[in-house]
Amino acid sequence: MDMVLIPLFLAIALGVGLYARVIPQGNGGWWRFAAATVALAVAARLAGHGWAATLLASAAEFLAVGMVWSGGTAEARAAARQYLTAVALAALCGWTALAVIQLGAVRPAAPWDRLAVALLLVSVALKLGLVPVYFWLPAVARASSAMTTALIVAVVDVGAFCELLALRDVAPWIFVDFAPLWIGLAVLSLLGAALLALAQRELKPMLAFSSIDDMGYLLLGLVAGGADGMAGAWFGILGHAMGKIVLFGAVGAAEWHLGRAVTLDDRGLSTPLPVASAAFMLGALGFIGIPPTLGFIGHWRLYLAGAELGGPLLLAVLYASSAMALLCYVRAIHRVWLGPVEAPVAGRPLPRAAALVLLAFAIAPVLFGLAPNGLRPAAEPHPHVAALPTETAGGVK
Q: Transmembrane segments in this chain: where (predicted)?
């Protein structure tokens, strides 16, 4: 798993760096915070499943706050404070939960096992901005540059989710025995975030809520487990990372051109920005799971896992969420990118380096969707995971 994630994080860092050289993303401190965030996320993956990885991943989250702060505006500083609050509470809850269960090696006797799972649920919800504690993510999306939010979603959040994948191997009881709680959180995020995305008029908050919606899918795959659930979560998180880089990058290109935030009231941006428009469309197709993209590989497995986990009712929830996501992206494409130009704006052209980054991340999910086996993680759990025994109140098993 890490042998795929580490090159992905490095490729994202390279792409975002090239993009940020020609389309500035913050003040001078932004570069230091962005580089340190990615470096710590990579180090956490190299460390495997353990306290070192947990602390490194938490450090990456705290440094990501600096990227938001470097926006330099009062709105950015307010969003950074909200994000810092979420990160601090998530770290406190997560560290406490992992200490109680000894990183998954021990299942404590009741009620300590319930307390640990409750704290872990709160930590995960805060880290990923899930419904109902999503308060920081749309605020960060509105106040920050496009690639700031993209790095948080595609590197920091993806790293946090992959820690959950490792925990699913070590301590499946956390997800199996408390499945209704995890399913409830996933369903709230699926339906709530999809509705909130439809309610947005500005594109960056819409993409932020779309990320929360997608995390609901991935969380269901994690709870379901099995071949379909775990493969769906794995392919889904890879598509999630690549998709958000290109979607936020395309909107950032439009903001660069217009000199302001992009809303549904804008029209015809495909005329001055054909590459960004094409990239956004390809990114949207992959993100909502249209074949032959990597998103499709993940989503249809998640549908199968959802049907096995919750039957027709949960499948209906998945269909409803997908329909709203499709409507959300179709509306954005039709109105913002393909709509007629009502009042031509003499804006800045898209720099060539940014265009190349957008095309690379837009085409990659299609190529990987045609040959996904190269991204398949090893069947065996991570060596750090395999080395951990599982204990109960009665001893080791």
A: 30-47, 54-71, 83-103, 115-137, 143-167, 174-197, 217-238, 275-297, 309-333, 353-371
- pLDDT for the residue 373: 82
Q: Supply the pTM of this predicted model.
A: 0.92
User: Helices in the chain by DSSP H: which ranges?
Assistant: 2-22, 28-47, 51-69, 74-101, 112-128, 136-143, 146-151, 157-170, 173-176, 179-199, 203-224, 226-258, 274-287, 294-332, 352-370, 383-386
Alpha-carbon torsion angle 211, 83, 18, 264, nearest 10: 50
d(CA 124, CA 121): 5
Tens of pLDDT along 5-36? Answer: 999 999 999 999 999 999 999 888 999 999 99
Q: Is 352 inside any structural domain?
A: yes
* Domain enclosing residue 114, as ranges: 1-370
pLDDT in tens, 103-115: 999 999 989 999 9
Number of domains within the chain: 1
- CA 19 to chain centroid, in Å, comes to 20
